[in-house]
């Protein structure tokens, strides 16, 4: 290849590099993305067999039956600016009342077998709770809570 051919090759390579630069910078800075989560509701229960001692449940003292409802998974992480698509499927429990007030989801009832989809923008960083207003305490087979972390960047 002569010097003119090398020059053309270098020029074309530079143009391609410049065209790819925004993509590279965007990746380095972490562009917003859509993050999808599939969460199911779960139910854990412990029941004393004959001859077994009761266990101590918070707020209730000694009990022979203990039930807790859960979100599974119970810990979700996104970046600030991401669009979140959160699907919650009620597999266990009569009904749950999903509450994420920081992102405009206020007490949405999901009955057994039902699947609900929530879409919102994670526009603020921090640690947020996904509560169930039907299972708020040990007396109500809770607290049923998941944690939603929005990372600042
Ligand atoms: Cu619940």
Structure characteristics:
18% helix; alpha+beta; 153 residues; single chain; Immunoglobulin-like; 4-stranded mixed beta sheet
Structure, explained:
- With 153 residues, this protein is an alpha+beta fold.
- It is built from one helix and eleven strands; from the N terminus they run H-E-E-E-E-E-E-E-E-E-E-E.
- The chain has one helix at 3-29; strands spanning 34-47, 55-57, 61-63, 65-72, 75-79, 83-89, 95-100, 105-111, 115-121, 126-132, 145-151.
- The strands form three sheets. The chain has a five-stranded mixed β-sheet with strand order 5-11-10-7-8, with no helix packed on it. A four-stranded mixed β-sheet has the order 4-1-6-9, with no helix packed on it. Strands 2-3 form a two-stranded antiparallel ribbon.
- It binds copper (II) ion.
- Copper (II) ion (CU) binds next to loops.
The helicity comes to: 10-25%
- The count of DSSP E runs of length 2 or more, i.e. the number of strands, is 11
- The secondary structure category is alpha+beta
- The first-level CATH class name of the largest domain: Mainly Beta
Radius of gyration: 25 Å
Multimeric organization? single chain
Termini distance? 47 Å
Tell me about the biggest sheet? 5 strands, mixed
Fold topology:
Blueprint: H1 3-29, E1 34-47, E2 55-57, E3 61-63, E4 65-72, E5 75-79, E6 83-89, E7 95-100, E8 105-111, E9 115-121, E10 126-132, E11 145-151
Bound molecules: copper (II) ion (CU).
Write a concise synopsis of the structure shown.
By secondary structure, the chain is α+β, with helices and mostly antiparallel strands. The chain has one helix at 3-29, and strands spanning 34-47, 55-57, 61-63, 65-72, 75-79, 83-89, 95-100, 105-111, 115-121, 126-132, 145-151.
């Amino acid at each position: 290849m002569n010097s003119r051919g090398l020059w053309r090759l270098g020029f074309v390579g530079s143009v391609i590099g410049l065209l790819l630069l925004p993509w590279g910078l965007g990746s380095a800075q972490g562009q917003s993305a859509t993050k999808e989560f599939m969460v199911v509701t779960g139910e854990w229960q412990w029941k004393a067999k004959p001859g077994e001692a009761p266990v101590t449940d918070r707020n209730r003292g000694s009990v022979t039956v203990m039930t807790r409802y859960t979100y599974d998974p119970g810990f979700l992480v996104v970046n600030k600016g991401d669009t979140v698509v959160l699907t919650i499927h009620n597999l266990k429990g009569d009904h749950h009342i999903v509450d994420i007030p920081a992102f405009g989801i206020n007490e949405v009832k999901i009955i057994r077998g039902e699947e609900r989809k929530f879409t919102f923008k994670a526009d603020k960083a921090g640690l947020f709770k996904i509560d169930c207003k039907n299972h708020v305490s040990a007396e109500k087979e809770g607290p049923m809570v998941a944690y939603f972390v929005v990372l600042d960047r």
